[in-house]
Specification:
about 280 residues; Rossmann fold; Pantoate--beta-alanine Ligase, Chain: A,domain 2; six-stranded parallel sheet; 11 helices; globular
Amino acid sequence: MKVIRTAQGLRDWSAEVLAAGLSLGFVPTMGALHAGHMSLVEKARGANDRIAVSVFVNPTQFNNPTDLATYPRTEEADLAMLEAAGVDVAFVPTVDEMYPEPDTRVFDLGPVAEVMEGAMRPGHFNGVAQVVSRLFAMVRPTRAYFGEKDFQQIAVIRRMVELEGGFDGLEIVDVPIKREADGLAMSSRNVRLTPEMRQAAPSIRKALLHAVELAGAMTPSEVIDATITEINSVPGLETEYFQIVDGATCQPIKAWHESEQPVGCVTVYAGDVRLIDNIKF
């Protein structure tokens, strides 16, 4: 595996791959890799001639300085995992390499970025669009892979690709959530959970599964209220939001018939650790 730390080095490698007529899969990550990330790598490995993975904690998508400071960074372990998985290139830039000048672009991401995470974390999705657009421009991937745990983020990235142009033929591939044996969605933030909160956190998944059961007899609004009550009844868990939205637009629905694919999206604080999850109805 080749480790590249400069934007120009990544562009040069990508140009060689594409000039040879090979397909290029790309998995952007913020490091602290786990089996969820590796499921994206495995999917990319099976569908492309070459694969690249970026490891970069992007400061422009954090609206909370403490969250940025405490985000786990495990570069040595990450590189070992990527090499073992057969990755061709790991791109590990510094902040100065990614942003030699401040990125002042503001993306018109529209309604898809204004609800849920967009409402709770002002500027977050604009920062995501900034870094992903830069990475796409460097890598020029055939396919890019994202986990469905960040359900809304995938919709935002599709919108960014539409806005930017220049990424003709790029396929955005979403990969199902990878879970621990007890149902907790895998996340780099899980390592920050105390033993007590780690024991409580799987209740989020249980509540989502119960929400699907309730949907047959309740309106979306009633399901939302019941699910929030169930999660908040677990000591240490506090729901920031639970919304049932259309899977394509991320807009809230009031009746089940309003969407062909309703999705329940939740954010919960387990102690001081912010966890997200979702489920399709």
